[in-house]
Amino acid sequence: MDELISRIMAASGLDESLAKKAIGIILAFLQKEGPAAEIGQLMEALPGAQDLANAEGGAKGGLMGAIGGMMGGGGGVMALGGQLMGAGLSMGQIQTVSKEMFAVGREKAGEDTMGAIVGAIPGLGQFV
């Protein structure tokens, strides 16, 4: 996890706290929206990932997920973007963080695992 945090900080210019928050938000979203088996493989490949996801709402999707659920759906990738922007990231930083996270995911969990995750979540491919 330290490697992922460092890479995101270097690529995006985020400080450590915001990098961890962004990673946690994305991981919590993936747990909520993605295929369980592949998400499990990703979480196992990134020690500490579950702790960050839990800090941002875990599989429940946090406050944004709850609000989206009340409005008739989770909102998908657009809700994720809104949550990241609400945390203080710019659109450019969101794209950088997403690309770097998925690059590390491919290195640690494998291309097949990450491909299945991207393929299962509508709209995710445009960010990774």
N-to-C span:
19 Å
Indicate the radius of gyration in whole angstroms: 13 Å
Percentage of residues in DSSP E strands: under 5%
In round numbers, the mean pLDDT is 88
Shape: globular
Count of discrete structural domains: 1
Order of helices and strands: HHHHHHHH
Indicate the low-confidence ranges by residue numbers.
Answer: 60-73
Main β-sheet, in a few words? none
In words, what does this structure look like?
The protein has 128 residues and is mainly alpha-helical. It is globular and about 30 Å long. About 11% of the residues have low confidence.
Q: Which key phrases capture this entry?
A:
globular; 8 helices; about 130 residues
Question: Topology of this structure?
Answer:
Layout: H1 2-12, H2 16-33, H3 36-45, H4 49-55, H5 62-70, H6 76-86, H7 91-109, H8 111-120
Helix pairs in contact: 1-2, 1-7, 2-4, 2-6, 2-7, 3-8, 7-8
Short description:
The protein is mainly alpha-helical.
